[in-house]
Amino acid sequence: MAFVKDMLRMWAHSWKRFISIAMITLLGVAVLTGIYAGCRDAFRSTDRFFDAQGLHDVQVLSTAGLSNGDIAALRKVNGVAKVQAERSQEVTFDLDGRKSATMQEIGTNGIDQPYLQEGRMPKKAGEIAVTRKFIRDSGKRIGSRLTVTPESASSDTSDTSDTNGADGTNETNGTDEAPSFPTKLTIVGVVLDPQNLSNPDGYSAMTSFRSTATTDYTFFAPSDGVTGTLYTSATLLVKGAAAESTFDESYENTVKQVTDRIDGTVKTDRQKARRQELLDAGNKKIVDARAEADKKFADAQSQIDANRQQFNQQVDQIVDMQASAAAANAGAAAAAGAPNAAAAAGTNAPNPQLDETTRETMRETIIAASPELTQAKQQLDQAQSQLNEQKASTEQTLKTKENELKTSIPQVRWYVQDRQSLGGFSALKSDLDSIQSLGNAFPIVFLLVAVMMSLTAMARMVEEDRSLIGTYVGLGYGRLAVASRYLLFALLACLIGGGLGLIAGFLGIPAFLLVVLQGMYVMPGLRLEYDWLYGSLGIALFVVGVLAATIYACVQEMRQTPASLLRPKAPRAGSRILLERIRPVWNRIGFLGKVTARNIFRFKSRLIMTVGGVAGCTALIVCGLAINDTVADLGIKQYRDIYQYDLMVVSDDSDASAMRTKVASDGRVTSSLDVRIESGDLTVAGSGDGDSGKAGSSGSESIQLVAVPEKHLSDLGEMVTLQPVSSGILGTSGVGKTGSLKLDDDGVIVAQSAASALGVKAGSKVRLTNGDGVQATAKVSAVNRNLIGSDVYVSETYYAKLFDSKDAKNTKNSKSSEDSEALTWNAMLAKLSGSDTSQTDYAESLEEDSSVMKAVSCAHMADSFKFDLMGAVVALIVALAGGLALVVLFTLANTNVSERVREMATLKVLGFFDREVHHYVNREMMILTVMGVILGLPLGRLVGGMLTMALNMPSLYFEVEVKPLSYVIAAVATMAFALLVQLFVNPVLDRIDPISSLKSVE
Predict the structure, then answer these.
(1) pLDDT: is 954 or 824 the higher one?
(2) Tell me, what's the pLDDT at 574?
(3) Fewest C-beta atoms under 10 Å: which of 99, 226, 862, 964?
(4) In terms of C-beta density within 10 A (0-12 exposed, 13-18 middle, 19 or more buried), how is residue 851 classed?
(5) What are the two backbone dihedrals, phi and then psi, of residue 709, each rounded to the nearest 5 degrees?
(6) What gap in Å lies between CA 488 and CA 466, rounded to an integer?
(7) Residue 434: pLDDT above 50?
(8) Measuring CA to CA, how many Å separate 715 from each of 434, 750, 780?
(9) Are strands 748-751 and 775-784 parallel, antiparallel or unpaired?
(10) 613: Cβ contacts below 8 Å, ≥ 6 apart
């Protein structure tokens, strides 16, 4: 009982150490669990939302649309739980200019169901539900009406499933009609598209610009009123996938098994079957066209024959009349000489007989003598000639169609995609993964500092009780029992600090992070959850570290005999320090300066612990500020240094000429470059062959594909800074000389932001998807310095080579060889005159023009670029690092004072005033703090570079930047914490009683 009371009394006396260990554990556990818990809560709520709305696991797209046979084949795939055939149509409408939208049918099989936020779901034909983004942009509300116009190519499938009819027009397959939606619409609800959780009122980097194949909004309509049997896509749910977290590798493996089956069996068979359907439909059209043409020609020939017969009859009548008249005249002349013979002849042959030659001669004579007959004959001959020419021409056309049918109908291509292809899903996952990587790295530093401080505090605590430990061991108490006094002390401090850390880690920090996340993404049903396993392991990690340090301190003392422990610890033998050997310097240092130098360098453990602890805290502050500086400079570097143009204008293909005319007529442009901009994808398949970036790398990135006219390839360098980059260390990259990179016809230039995320380098092979969905394999000729957005530059010639090749022609919306000779330059990069404000105003005015789809001012983007999520995390990290620095300095200062009580008492006996004692002690701490700061500043740059390298976020590359002011802030903050600690330490020095402190231990 006395042992326990003494232990409790000892604990109460060491309350400062208890608070220090508890606070360090609190901060460490909070950092370890807080960022993880915030990301995990977002992951779990999003996963629940996806399961509730039936977000598809797999989506199948076809360049020729999907038929009922395709849907039936997908249902038979092993592992597929549900299949939903989907129909959509692209439409346009007037909203401060021409805008586009996708009319999406709400599925009836429970897949990709929109989440109702306001109003009700549409049920009748003509009713639609819209997204909040549309409500915000349009100013419309529930009950508003809207009229839309279907695109000329109303859906991707209608363009590719049509075949050329015999008359040369494009006709839809008679059995598969393209989807068609009502055009008179009424808004009845506001919904959230589960495929895109981006908050329309939150942060948007605006890193890509829409091409003609991308719509601005999505309208959801019921099946009522939708016609067409050709499906735009098919969405699938995989058996067992809902039981896995959509962000885990187990989910990806489950889905991959099904996508592999589709790729391996169904895909090939249905591609061939679908193309054969199109061939059969084309052949049927040709046969029907030939039959219809033959019928028309036969009818025309019959009409001509009837007219010619009537004409011949008229001519023959005239011939007969003339022949009869001639015969009558001849008979009258003969009757004068032989009346009896004439009478006999007139009785026996009343109609003279003409031979065919004479009759034909008479016909020609009669026709030639009559202008009317001549004209009638010419008309008949001309009609016959025209009919013969039409027959020959039609037959030739049909034969040409028959010969061209197989080449004009492309090879059908299926694209099997999972959730990673959804831009909203991949952006959310990447954001959370990147933030979570910070949460995984920073606790390591906190743990190391916690172990160091615990070792310092507990070693001093054990050393103070040295004689008491010897007494207990001499009385027969076991060493384990004696050590339990300190182990339980450290354990209790860790448990209390860890418990408070769990509260902060699972409630405080996640609530803070989720507020920021909800400004970027809409996550219905978000709630804070506690993870018992992770929380317990978090505390256990710090408990093990602190207890290990305590055990080490106890072992170091208790391995001595009780007799040795009962005697005071012999003071350290005097020794020279290195500075003493530098006589010119040492001789010029005063007495107190020499004492301070000896105290600092003779006690190596105190030196290492203090400098190491301060350096770690300073490094954390610098690291946080480095991330903040890096993010803050992204916009300026990208939109003022890399992008040299001032304005980007994008239009629809049909409005490209009008857009250029409009910009040119305004007179603001000093120089410009016409380009083609499309939204596409860059994909790297994990092959591990070294040709596709990192071995085994994989992934997809949304890109902005920029095609440059062949005659103006050299002008690209005047609009965009072209600098080749190579991977560096510590978050840096090797940047080549400006202008040393040229765009040519041997490959594409990929932005550094995309290359870094996917592990792409010069010489890699990647798969590009253009704005029309055509895919092709391209060679990466170089990686260009780029921080925001994922631009891929390609020459006009290489673009044609990629997307007009045999394989590319066999994909959707591929152009004929005649049509593909020249691209439509739907965008312009321009340099403007005037101030930044005038350039921004001009861009805004351009967006009101009907020919302009998007106008972006680089000056506005540079000034308005923000990254709220990273800024919030950086603020959190800096605050926690500052708290850790304060606790570390407090612990070290108190330990330093407790170790030197007799020394301080001696100084007081010698006549030192309190202020002089303060200065004597605090000077050593300030010097050690300065040494820690000097070491921590470059260490923080090192850690910051390593962390930013791990932040692979979509369309962003963090080029590490640490401003001199950040180093100053980190140093000043650490020194300020050291001065603040002095305010707590000075009263302790004042309370030292020289008499009691100098009493002999015996």
Answers:
(1) 824
(2) 64
(3) 964
(4) buried
(5) -55, 145
(6) 18
(7) yes
(8) 37, 18, 20
(9) parallel
(10) 449, 452, 453, 888, 889, 891, 892, 932
Tokens found for residue 218: 């999505």
From CA 831, how far away is CA 645, in angstroms rounded? 5
Residue with tokens 């790295």: 441
Query: How would you classify the pairing of strands 98-105 and 217-221?
Result: parallel
Q: Is pLDDT above 50 for 815?
A: no
State how far the Cα of 95 lies from the Cα of 274, in Å rounded to an integer: 39
Distance CA 630, CA 546 (A): 35
CA dist., res. 58 & res. 418, Å (int): 5
Rg over CA atoms, the chain: 44
DSSP SS3 for 179: coil
* pTM score, whole prediction: 0.69
58-66: strand order across its sheet: 80-86, 231-238, 58-66, 414-418
Q: How many secondary structure helices (H) and strands (E) does the chain include?
A: 31, 25
SS (H, E, C) 847-860: HCCCCCCEEEEHHH
Asked if 129 and 187 touch (Cβ cutoff 8 Å), the reply is: yes
pLDDT of the residue at 953: 64
First and final CA of the chain: distance in angstroms? 26
Report whether 80 contacts 236 (CB < 8 A): yes
Cα–Cα distance between 719 and 20 in angstroms, integer? 57
Nearest to residue 589, comparing CAs of 607, 601, 605? 601
Residue with tokens 């603020």: 875
- What number of CA atoms fall less than 13 Å from residue 829's CA on the CB side? 21
Instruction: Please state, in angstroms and rounded to a whole number, the distance separating the CA atoms of residues 740 and 722.
Output: 7
The tokens of 214 are what? 């991308």
Chain Cα centroid distance, residue 979: 46
Mean pLDDT of 273-282: 83
| Residue 689 pLDDT greater than 50, yes or no | no
Question: Quick count: other Cβ atoms within 10 Å of Cβ 204?
Answer: 11
Pick from 730, 795, 797, 726: nearest CA to 763? 726
CB of 97 closer than 8 Å to CB of 848: yes
- Check if the beta carbon of residue 232 is closer than 8 Å to that of residue 67: no
**CA–CA separation, 813 vs 803, rounded Å?**
10
Which pLDDT belongs to residue 113? 93
- Give the integer Cα–Cα distance in Å for 271 and 248: 32
What is the distance between the alpha carbons of residues 524 and 771, in angstroms, rounded to a whole number?
A: 32
Mean pLDDT is lowest, of 15-29, 375-389, 538-552, for: 375-389
pLDDT of res. 351: 47
Distance CA 234, CA 59 (A): 6
